[in-house]
Amino acid sequence: MYIHQLRNWPQFQWDNDVITSLLAEVRHRQGRLLGRMEGLGFHLQEEATLQTLTLDVLKSSEIEGEVLNPDQVRSSIARRLGMDIAGLVPADRNVEGVVEMMLDATQRYSATLTQDRLFGWHAALFPTGHSGIHKIVVGGWRNNVKEDPMQVVSGPMGRETVHFQAPDSDRLQHEINAFLKWLNSPEKIDPVLKAAIAHLWFVTIHPFDDGNGRIARALADMLLARADESNKRFYSMSMQIRAERKTYYDILEETQKGTLNITEWLQWFLACLNRAIAATDNTLAAVMRKAKFRERPATQTINDRQKLMLNKLLDGFEGKLISSKWAKITKVSQDTAVRDIQDLIERGLLIREDAGGRSTSYILKEE
């Protein structure tokens, strides 16, 4: 029996004595982080938000086994937020769709969540009306028959493990109506707890043919933005869930097969959120490093190609940077690439790497 089949569904309960101290710790950590960010100034906040939203989109898709192009995600977010950054690249339609959903959730966090808004998110995720090779219902709830229930499964075909079974499709409109009425009601509980419950509740209903997990995480992000009372995002819950993906699926499955006492789910969610906020130290360190580098006088008059490549190095360039890679990425001749690199060396921004080999490679010169 699954929780949505229980007589008192969806009257969730939890142990306040257990949850209160965890929630207080999370709220304290959130407050400290937001206080630190307010002291950094607008441009650093903007950079941190771009970094965090990029991670959110990438990691939420990775949880579902979909790997997106980081440059496309970053470019799509920057364009939509009106940010002026070097090296913007065109983004595929599926990237634009995930970004559109995430930004609508986090930038319009105080807007009422409606059925049409959910349909819009789903349509953005699946612009072609297909999930892989399968045609799906877009702009409406799934309509599977009772003989073919919506099951969340894993494992090879023929030997799948059923993690849980969602409500039959003839119940969906009633279930969604109850969910939206609760979510849009004035806050009776802390919005961080509301984020945890909304995530679980939406996953349980599983109203769409596909994309339910990503939409559930977008809903959680929307409610966490409400908790912060800010559309600037400085921590990524999806990045932390991706790091703990097995535990995430295990606790969801256990909760689906348990009772309406969801204390253990809330404990895990709050602890995961706490770890997500703690992990921002790495994000902020990278943002500060980039800001410090860009403030150097020698960076003020460099060309767009050089800005692009320095940004890639600051973001963590994959592999060795050699002149042929520079030429390929910036779409210039080898001679132009060498001149660009030599200019940055003379400015004290790049140095040749000591490591030997046939091709000379280059790294940032830190102050």
TrEMBL record:
Matching entries from Gene3D superfamilies are given as: Fido-like domain, Winged helix-like DNA-binding domain superfamily/Winged helix DNA-binding domain
User: From what superkingdom does this record's organism come?
Assistant: Bacteria
Q: Give coiled-coil spans as residue ranges.
A: none
Q: Does the keyword Hydrolase apply?
A: no
Which InterPro entries does this UniProt record tie to the protein?
Answer: DUF4172, Fido, Fido-like_dom_sf, Fido_containing, WH-like_DNA-bd_sf
The record's active-site residues are 206
Q: Name one Pfam family in it.
A: DUF4172
Per UniProt, the keywords (alphabetical) are:
ATP-binding, Nucleotide-binding
GO molecular-function terms, A-Z: ATP binding
* Name of the molecule in the record: Fic family protein
